[in-house]
Amino acid sequence: MIAHHELIPSLPVQQETIPVPVFQSRSMHALLERVRRFARASASVLISGESGTGKELLARRLHEAGPRVGEPYVRVNCAALPRSLIESELFGHESGAFTGASNRRIGRFEAAASGTIFLDEIGELPLAMQVKLLRVLEENEFQRVGSNQDLHLRARVVAATNRSLEDRIRKKRFRADLYHRLNILALHIPPLRERREDIPVLVSHFIQRFRGEAEFAIRGVSASVMRQLAEYDWPGNVRQLRNVIHRACILATGEIIEEVDLPAEESPTRHPQKLPEGFEQLPLREIERIVILSRLRRFEGNKTEAAAALGVTPRTLRNKVTEYRKLGFSC
């Protein structure tokens, strides 16, 4: 009987400044293959996924894997920008453009040059600024605040959101035309609870990353701890798992981690997820059909992306779609 889980030796200690995604699930393999293909393109990319899934990491991989690798990579947290200064932050300003603007300032779009500008939390951008951003994306030009000179947009635009932009569009909080302009290429990162097979390799990766801070030479986690980690729902996703393993390494009392601290109030056993009304009475095949068709609608009929999000092969999904069409369902 295996009493504990040793480190996975094939995963090296991370030395580079740009982290590499760690995974073994089919859905993440498919996602990283799309990243590789998308990296060569110039079209805008919209990355979606819950908080902590690694959206910025994916944006960096897009930049690093493509022809813009030697150019600047500029990250903008749209939620952190003061509303009164958003336009100046993004596009820059001339001296005297407004009170306090004593010098010319280069904005983030200009600083990105021919590289990549990453607009994180794009869903938090005010509607007035969404109009201006759409104009920039449509015309490939922008102006510093207080200037009449047009500057050419050379950077590739990558945006990310942890919100449902479709829902925000319905609530009139996000422009549909901007959404479609950003969503030329789409990447969706599944939450960790939907790819639990990645948990063991992530645990090993984070132990190797943080073992230098431990009092003991950590070799792995106990079987009971691994079971506990694998069954947890991870509302904070990979970021939360990283923090849990970091803390466990520091507090470990031996070479094998025998205990981890998981927030009880977020435990799925305390707060079980509610199924949509009527789901509990449906047969499994019907639930599967509803989920598959819902995911196809989410990705606007793109079977490759929908299959990756579902964790199945495109061929499997095509077979399901053929089956549903024979039954009279619209796919």
Question: Mind explaining what this structure looks like?
Answer:
40% of the residues lie in helices and 11% in strands. A hairpin with an 8-residue loop joins β5 (141-142) and β6. Strands 3-4-7-2-8 form a 5-stranded parallel β-sheet. A 3-stranded mixed β-sheet has the order 1-9-10. It contains 13 helices and 10 strands. The longest helix has 15 residues, at 237-251. The protein folds into 3 domains: 26-188, P-loop containing nucleotide triphosphate hydrolases (Rossmann fold), CATH 3.40.50.300; 192-266, Helicase, Ruva Protein, domain 3; 279-326, Homeodomain-like (Arc Repressor Mutant, subunit A, Orthogonal Bundle), CATH 1.10.10.60. Residues 9-17 and 265-272 have low confidence and may be disordered. The protein has helices spanning 26-38, 55-64, 86-91, 108-111, 127-139, 165-170, 176-182, 199-210, 223-231, 237-251, 284-298, 303-310, 314-326, and strands spanning 4-6, 45-48, 73-77, 116-120, 141-142, 151-152, 156-161, 185-188, 220-222, 256-257. The chain is globular and about 65 Å long. It has 331 residues and is an alpha/beta fold.
CATH superfamily of the largest domain: P-loop containing nucleotide triphosphate hydrolases
Q: Alpha-carbon distance between the termini? A: 48 Å
Q: Total strand count, please? A: 10
Radius of gyration: 23 Å
Largest sheet: 5 strands, parallel
How many helical elements?
A: 13
Let me know the average pLDDT: 87
Order of helices and strands: EHEHEHHEHEEEHHEHEHHEHHH
Please estimate the helix content.
25-40%
Strand order of the largest sheet: 3-4-7-2-8
User: What name does the CATH topology of the largest domain carry?
Assistant: Rossmann fold
When the domains are counted, the total is 3
Say what oligomer this is: single chain
CATH class of the largest domain: Alpha Beta
Class based on secondary structure composition and strand pairing: alpha/beta
Shape: globular
CATH architecture of the largest domain: 3-Layer(aba) Sandwich
Q: Which runs of at least 5 residues are low in confidence (pLDDT < 50)? A: 9-17, 265-272
Q: Strand-residue fraction?
A: 5-15%
GO biological process, one term: regulation of DNA-templated transcription
InterPro entries: AAA+_ATPase, AAA_lid_NorR, Homeodomain-like_sf, HTH_Fis, P-loop_NTPase, Sigma_54_int, Sigma_54_int_dom_ATP-bd_1, Sigma_54_int_dom_CS
Keywords: Activator, ATP-binding, DNA-binding, Nucleotide-binding, Transcription, Transcription regulation
Organism: Maioricimonas rarisocia
